[in-house]
Fold this protein.
Amino acid sequence: MDTFLRPPEEILPPLLGPTLNYRSKARLGARFVDKKGKVLVGFREKMKGFITETESCKTLRLPAGDLLEPLAEMIMRLSDPQTVPQIEVAVGDVTTAFVIRHLSDLTEVDTDILKKFSKDHQVQIYLQPSDTDSVYRLSPDGADEYLYYDLDEHDLRIFFTPLDFTQVNHVINQSMVSLAIKLLSPGHDDEVLDAFCGIGNFSLAIARGVRHVTGLESASSSVERAEYNARINGVENVTFLSRDLFTEPVTDLLEPLSHVLLDPPRSGAETLAKTLAQSDVKRVVYVSCNPQTLARDIEILVDGGYHFDKAGVIDMFPHTTHIESIAVLSR
């Protein structure tokens, strides 16, 4: 809390969750190491290009956490083990997916090896031959189009693709969504803005208890996924729009709104904070993955007449130096 120039009136208890096998998203490095005569799959060492030799990962959700060594052995059997530089990991409530980036064309024998790995370990294998638009599922045939996680308290099932942004800790995410709504405390007749809404993680849960929610997100693919999630969950009182919140003021959208929730990336929400400071919005909940930009934006809001009511930390990333924060402001 020393990051804030003006501290909050109340410090919330920390939001804690599991510390092992919690991580549902990760980017793994892969490299053939000539001196070792084998492929390594794992996390890259900080500030270096080396990959830490790892048999398993205790923070990744299962089964992904136990498949690092089998992944390395599988890549070693490919016709060119040096063609795979990284693997994206995505784990839903019932499905695990690996997105394998490859720099050269794979042979039919290579794809058979990948399909066998998919079958043996009951995971989905996606291939990425170039940019993210090139990603496609290789195996298994006929699998569901999306992964998903449930928000049980709000009777929601949130669908996502392996490359969609989702919170890495689904258990903590469930608690965080409920905490954010409690702190936002909107009424049934209120209209709410969810800024940086992603695929609808907060928006759809908020919509269960208010008149209307407007979700804003710059990535059109995320807006499309959020709209899909609204339809599949039968949530009709929500609208998703594509807006660049880093450069576009949203004064026109704030006029009818009483409550705003924002969950920006590490760069924060300076432009939106300046717009909110001049608005009549009465309550703001700010979820942040960067204490420095959170502190900067809160100063803007406080200078604009908001009272800094509460703040707390969320242990979204156990065993790392990263922390999630949540803050409440009102006027």
The first strand starts at residue 10 and ends at 11. The chain has eight helices and 16 strands.
